Amino acid sequence: MTNLLRLAGFRAALAYTSILLIAMALVMGLLYERLADTMRGAQDNLIWREAAALSFIHQRDGMRALAQAVSAVQAGQGSYVRLSDGLGNFLAGNLQSFPTPERTDAEGWVHFSENGLPVRARLLQVDENLVLLVGHEITDGQNLLAGFRTAFAMALLAILLVGLGGGAFLARRGLQRVEAIGEGLRPVMQGDLSARLPVAKGGVEWQVLESRINATLAQLEKLMQATRQVSDNLAHDLRAPLTRLRVRLETVLAKTENDEIAEAIDDVDGLLKSFNALLTLSRLDSGIATLEAWPVNINELLDELHDLFAPLFEQHNMRLELSCADNMNLSGDADLLGQALVNLLENVLAHGVEVGSSVELAARQEGDKVILSLADGGKGIAPQRRNDALERFVQLDASRAKGGSGLGLSLVAAICTHHGGELHLANNEPGLRVEMHLPVKA
């Protein structure tokens, strides 16, 4: 019920049902009052007719005839009559003692009970020394009104149940439509901006919503393609002159052995690396690059990286440890996986240096997934900043004092997605643990 109350459709149905119940209650209340007044009027007319008949007998034939007529009235017929003198002494009728009134309304009607049955009566002054009480049982009327009250209550309950049930049905149906829209947008969340929602049959409002979402996606795809085209063209156009510049600088360096030229070559290498990463990211995100899945020997890949980077970690007084089970294999692109692991290792050397600490490069298999991980002992990344670290050109060091382009982790994440996997950042206590969850069969 709590979950239903969170749905706007159910809350709207609940509000509409509440308004309908209030309206129906007012209408039924008015009908009930009209019915009660009508029945009460009919009962009062019956009593007045009996009283008028008895009064006429008294006027025509005298008190003796009146007493005989009153004595002839039987209580089993639902009528109660009592003729008494001015002092209240019993003269005739089917009420030996004067009843104790339970209440007397403003119009002079007396209500009492006789033999457990409710009676409505009227006192009439026939002459100076005669008082006539004429009443009638109102059980049938009360039972009828009670039946109407029960019917009204059941009708209101039925309206409430139908309203709640219909509201729950419509709300859940709307939620299913929303979930279908969310499922249709899942490829967009994964980077496929060409995905579109099917405009299904149904309410016009849903069709309008889905059409506008598709129009928004089309415009977004157009803008992203333009942005990527600009960045790709820029990276592609600058890579060639930078490569030529690097060759010329190497030629000059071979002749002069100038340290400044060597530093300039390092800067050019950094730019070329950033451009290559940017072009790779663009190809992966746009879907242009298709996955060339071949069997990859994880043991050989990790051994090669360990041999390559272990000396670099030793230069920083750190240890690179390798942990990998035998015969670890998966289907994927070995070059891209190697590039992802190189990026992670370089990130540790750039941002996770902790003298005397150890860094673990590991691989393990869980079910149908292979998990490649790199755990360091540095300062790590705060949980609230981990999503930011996966964005392009984002560096957690606002001053950018440590250099870099901010493309490392975003490229690793893109390579994982390209293989149908996911990238997870976790706390290594201390340090950061980066895990690539990759399917065995991409």
Summary, kept brief:
The protein is α+β, with helices and mostly antiparallel strands and 442 residues long.
Describe the structure.
This protein has 442 residues and is of the alpha+beta class. It has 3 domains: 142 residues, 2-Layer Sandwich (Beta-Lactamase); 65 residues, Orthogonal Bundle (Helix Hairpins), CATH 1.10.287; 146 residues, Heat Shock Protein 90. It is 57% helix and 18% strand. It contains 10 helices and 13 strands. A 6-stranded antiparallel sheet has the order 2-1-6-5-4-3. Strands 8-10-11-13-12 form a 5-stranded mixed sheet. Strands 7-9 form a two-stranded antiparallel sheet. The model has no long low-confidence stretch (mean pLDDT 82).
